[in-house]
Amino acid sequence: MADPTARIEFPNSRLRPIERTSTASVVARQLLDELAKDDFVSGTRLPSERDMADTLGVGRSTLREAMAALDLLGIIEVRPGSGSYLKADSSQLLPQALKWGLMLAQPEVQDLVEMREHLELLAAHLAAARASDEDVERLRSHLEQMRAPDASVEEFVEADIAFHLETAIIAKNTVLEALLESIRSLLRAWFDRTLRVEGTMKATIKEHEAVFDAIERRAPADAEKRMRQLMQRADRRLKQTL
């Protein structure tokens, strides 16, 4: 259990003053980076609003916007009259950091997107080579959820993620499955961002149908080819939104 008297201290040597023209998103990213550096536990209190604003060299209103963003992402909890508190251990901040980084087009997140493409190609190839009839039916169910005419964007995103994670399960490679599972938050942020562009959901269904067809036919080379096409088109759509 967290010590209620414990407080987070941000060393001035690590926090850099931000130019007054900077946006609240830049402030939020720097705070998130700082929180992820040390072993803070859930429930630890952050410095006061005045201290953080003075250290960063920004106005109180800009800091409040940044804190509101971190609150929205579930990273901190702002308690009126009490202060701001970390909602998760520092070790659990990576998914939120990736999501925020995606919003800001951070280079390290682009590197992860690139790596994910290669993982997906391998998953599709192995799934087509190793799928049982039961595996194919489970994968089909996720595709049907994506096809549902009344599906919301959020429901479509969850079905899309499930399709990709199911493909990794069918591949029957535990390391591959664990790697893709570990970036689930990135996938959700990616899909949620691109699928809101008009026409994307319809195109995405066609691309997933092609991958499913190749896996159902047990055609590894074609499954890899179709997944490559899906990934390349999805990557182009993502870059258009950044």
Structure description:
With 242 residues, the protein is mainly α. The protein folds into two domains: 67 residues, Orthogonal Bundle (Arc Repressor Mutant, subunit A); 137 residues, Four Helix Bundle (Hemerythrin (Met), subunit A), CATH 1.20.120.530. Helix content is 67%, strand content 3%. It contains eleven helices and two strands; from the N terminus they run αααββαααααααα. A two-stranded antiparallel sheet has the order 1-2. A hairpin with a 3-residue loop joins β1 and β2. α1 packs antiparallel against α4, α2 packs across α3 and α6 runs antiparallel to α10. The radius of gyration is 21 Å and the shape is elongated. The relative contact order is 0.11. About 2% of the residues have low confidence.
User: Can you tell me the CATH architecture of the largest domain?
Assistant: Up-down Bundle
CATH fold naming of the largest domain: Four Helix Bundle (Hemerythrin (Met), subunit A)
β-strand number: 2
Q: Can you tell me the CATH superfamily of the largest domain?
A: GntR ligand-binding domain-like
Structure annotation, total helices = 11
User: pLDDT under 50 segments (min length 5)?
Assistant: 18-22
Major beta sheet summary? 2 strands, antiparallel
User: How would you describe the shape?
Assistant: elongated
N-to-C order of helices and strands: HHHEEHHHHHHHH
Mean pLDDT: 81
SSE-based structural type: mainly alpha
Radius of gyration: 21 Å
- Taken as a percent bin, the fraction of beta residues is under 5%
- Helix fraction, binned, reads 55-70%
CATH class of the largest domain reads Mainly Alpha
C-alpha end-to-end distance: 40 Å
